Amino acid sequence: MITKLYLAHPILDREWIRKEEARIEQELGIELINPFYDNAERNDMKRVDAGQLTVYDDKLVYKAIVEGDLKAIDSAQGIVAILTENLTVGTLMEIFYNAYTLKRPTYLVIMNDKIYNHPWIKYCATRRFTSLGEFESWMKTQ
Fold first, then answer.
1. Helix (H) or strand (E) holding 94
2. Which has fewest Cβ within 10 Å: 6, 41, 44, 99?
3. pTM of the predicted model as reported, rounded to 2 decimal places
4. 99 secondary structure, DSSP code
């Protein structure tokens, strides 16, 4: 039974996904590790949210960000990735690392019709969904 998933998603969608995260955790009784808020070593999102940095600021400590994300993925049983129109390199890298390197469950919520049937997406996905509701309904049956 899955109880802990890494929540991969675009930085530009982090605010609405953060709200959904809390609801999903309560609804499904699972822990979602949000790389923007649950990594104790990162304080950059507070600075971004306060307008002190931009989301892709040159001052962001890239090594700590990537290594912290990889460590968080390692600590989970798999990932759920939300793919929107705001595709990001980080989200795609996290999907690949989890699916190909760790060979762990990789659930993709694909809200971007253009990539739903992309060969790499299909290859890496354990299961694909078109909405969070579809993912949640499926998780309840597991």
1. helix 89-96
2. 41
3. 0.93
4. I
- Are 72 and 97 a contacting pair, CB within 8 Å? no
Eight-state DSSP code of residue 98? I
Residue 6: strand pairing partners: 33, 79
Cβ neighbours for 95, distance < 8 A, ≥ 6 positions apart: 8, 79, 81, 106, 108, 124
Provide the residue range defining the domain that includes 100: 4-140
Q: Which two tokens stand for residue 71?
A: 């460590």
Q: How far apart are CA 21 and CA 99, in angstroms?
A: 22
Please give the tally of structural domains in the chain: 1
Contact criterion met (CB below 8 Å) for 107 and 126: yes
Torsion of CA 114, 85, 16, 7, to 10 degrees: 70
Q: Can you give the pLDDT of all 142 residues of the chain as single tens digits?
A: 899 999 999 999 999 999 999 999 999 999 999 999 887 566 787 788 888 888 888 888 888 889 999 999 999 999 999 999 999 999 999 999 999 999 999 999 999 999 999 999 999 999 999 999 999 999 999 9
